UniProtKB/TrEMBL annotation:
GO molecular function: ATP binding; tRNA binding; tRNA-5-taurinomethyluridine 2-sulfurtransferase
Domain tRNA-specific 2-thiouridylase MnmA-like central residues, every copy: 215-276
One GO cellular component term: mitochondrion
Protein name: Mitochondrial tRNA-specific 2-thiouridylase 1
Keyword Nucleotide-binding attributed: yes
UniProt-listed GO biological process terms: tRNA wobble position uridine thiolation
Catalytic activity: 5-taurinomethyluridine(34) in tRNA + S-sulfanyl-L-cysteinyl-[protein] + AH2 + ATP = 5-taurinomethyl-2-thiouridine(34) in tRNA + L-cysteinyl-[protein] + A + AMP + diphosphate + H(+)
Keywords: ATP-binding, Disulfide bond, Nucleotide-binding, RNA-binding, Transferase, tRNA processing, tRNA-binding
Lineage, opening ranks: Eukaryota, Metazoa, Chordata, Tunicata, Ascidiacea
Amino acid sequence: MSKVICAISGGVDSAVAALLLKRRGLNVVGVFMRNWDLEDEVGQCSVQEDATYATRVCRALDIPFYEVNLVKEYWTNVFMPMVDQYEMGNTPNPDILCNQLVKFSAFHNKCSSMFGNVVIATGHYARTTLNDRVLTAKVPHTAEQRLLKAVDPFKDQTFFLHKVDRTALLRSYFPLGGIFKSKVKEIAAASEISFVLKRKESAGICFIGRREFSNFIKNYISPKPGQFICYETGNVIGNHDGYFSYTVGQRSLIGGLRISYAVLHRNSKDGNVLVVPGLNHPALYRKSLVSGPAHWIAGEPALLREGKPLNCYFRFCHRNSLVPCTVHQLENERLLIILQHPLRAMTVGQDAVLYTEDECLGGAQIDDVGPSIQELKMKFGRIQKNELGTLVS
């Protein structure tokens, strides 16, 4: 009987993943990752509750339960780099780093040392081209493995998996990739693990959970009060406690003002936050960006290797719709990405993730963004909306 390690988080998705594996007659072992140290805790955290539910799930399914401690790896490779990026005024995505360096690297290595070269399953909503073959046959190291979108478009998590190493994907299995979330809940409700449905869906920073972010991050970054500066007038219109509490595009209610403002830029040097009136100001919209070197899951696309442009799809936020784009290779493996229409609130530090219709090709961190629609208007005069595509908020 094939042995499969299933990462158990204490939530419904990983619980149903383990249940489906067991129903296939596989030798399933549940392993819980403890990645956040309660001694570092300064607020409400669900890590101990997660561990308790993970234990209950394994007991209900009658599968072995293990716990691995990856606190050091998470702190060093994910959390502190995230803090550093916020302190620099950038907008990182810790969940992407967590998958790349903890869940599909450190966790895989730990499981290999404990159980040998086994397949590792998770409750992510994603698919791969090898699919069930990783369970039934020894996959050669040179095998091609591609990352495909989940059938449930609202739960698809390939955005967060785009930096996972191909060799890790060769021994990864996603039992929920071909199932809709509603079906997952139905399966749980009719099984011995129905108790997990009483828990709230996981949210917030990976492994840290639900937080009021501005208060949480202040425990790790020294406060740097600054001023809100209006982009249109250059006037000071308010004060704030720290630029790192704000993200580009965020709505900012500034005391004493009748209208809402949106964050346009954060200056880590003087601590000031540049804001624009309204939530759909043209200064928030951009149509191009430059990224650093890309991580290509199944290798660099042939067109780019040949020095030709690649037409594909782009997103920088996992909930955004895919936008057609053209990708050009620059020097030092950097990419120039030109979008079919402008997008709101793209900023440095976010991830540019690229797709075909069904496949996640990979992605790269945004190093710079092109001129805003407002800047183009100021330089070239009034630009008609239909010349730029539909502005979407």
